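Inputs:
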Amino acid sequence: MPRRFLSHWRGILLSLIGIVSIVWLAATDQLGLYIHPRYFVFTVIMSAFAMVFIILAFSFLPHRVGEAVEHESHSQPPRKTWVWSFANILLVAGTAVALLVLPPVTLTAATVAQRDINGSASSSAGNDSVVLVGADDSALSVKDWAGILRQGADEVSLAGKTPTLIGFVTPDPDDPTNVFYVARFVITCCAVDAQPIGVPVYLPGWQEQYDVDEWVSVTGEFVSNPSTDSFQATVLSPSDISVTEQPAQPYVY
Amino acid sequence: MNAAVGGRTAIGGTIGLLIVAGALTLRLVSPDDANEGLSDATLDFFTLSISVFLESLPFIFLGVLLSVLVQIWLPPTFFDRLLPRRPVFRRAVMSLFGVLLPVCECGNVPLARGLIMRGFTVAESITFLLAAPILNPVTIITTYQAFGWDHGILAGRIIGGFVIANLVGWLFSKHPRQSDLLTPRFDAHCQSHDSASESASKLRRSVTGFAEETSAMLPALVLGSAVAGAIQVGISRDILVALGSNPVWSVLALMALAFIIAICSNVDAFFILSFGSTFMPGSIVAFLTFGAMVDLKMLVLLRTTFTTGTLIRLTTIVGLCCVILGFGVNLIA
């Protein structure tokens, strides 16, 4: 029985746990917390194919017909096989807890600290000119504004712009007392490649009103950064900040 | 007798459906605050690890199903008719299999195992394994979309991938005992596979093959995902990115980034594009070539098949080749 678990059933059980998790995440519109939307259809289709094989496995495998792999672990002493089986049962149980018990969550500001915010040029080029010619900038996201600032736009070129941005709060590492970022993660493939982007907000003593990782909606205008410690030249001076719910799709692409 | 087997089949299928329903119920009744008390770093570890697992899982399924197709459904002479007999040309053609089978790198592992079980040499299988993630239409198109023909990045990736894969394949072909490159467990599996009963139906053998391959691959994927998640939480990327403008260190830094980030080769060009202004072209080519061939998650997956010594040699050779490729592109571009 332990040999059979190792050679056949651990893969079936891990597949089953993964597929149930994928189906539930897709059905509840939370698959985007882990992978880029371009993979949604492929992931669900492959899961459906695999589920057919899993159900067939429960039907066919108990009959022990033609499984050559049975020979492979005969050389292992029974005690070692039992220990190895126990370790694999723990692995399956741990996977079940991670995928079926823990609620899905987004990345936190702890990961922002690991990755240079606005360290990549994830924002598309060209948005700067779109803003300056007076086009509707209300549709621009945190990613767009972060890209515009990264391209060197200052308070003069952004005069009159009053964006409303939704993101989570993360401190500016250079002046955490006076400046925080309203931030989002940009995803290319899955959460593991997430790059934080954000727009700096100047608000002395912000920690007394808002928690790190709290989702906020910030409205304001761009000004020259009064902070002497922060490296950001232009910041948002907020006229209104309100705590808001995490959006259904917290990442940007 | 047939009625008894049919009954057992129906009971087995019903048990399977009940377990699926049980897993779904567990997911539905799990409380929303089940992660309360966990630190942010722990939460991010789970999020990162789960994202690697869920992103890779469908590719593993695709690779396993293609492996089953190769082993059980294709006629024994199918590849013999397609491939040249001379080993060098044979490996060269196999390194282009990715054009027909555009599976990303983690999906190629079960497929490469299937090729070995089908009778291909280890060297041929390694050539395919290293080349296919790069020399496939999806990767080439996304790399072109990201970089066009600028700085020789696309050409460097395609040519470098082809040359390195065939060089590594040629080196491993010189090993006098190919089976010594495999883990004893997988080698025994191949031997028993050769003498396996063919009396069972193809469908039954396919299901058995699916169970065997997922049992080999998925524990490794779980561990690989957990290690990748832990390293992402534990190692700051700032240090690597800070080395970007140095012609030597940028190559090594981006190769290290490729190793730990373990991103799919189909989209890695878009990821590294965002660092395009920070790093030199040669380092980007090294990232795109090395990361598609070797990374943390891949090594854990490959350990199901190859010995530790084989993987150390493979990683060292591929790493050195990518360093040379990166330096070369930096000199020319």
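The first helix of chain B runs from residue 2 to 29. Flag for discussion at group meeting.
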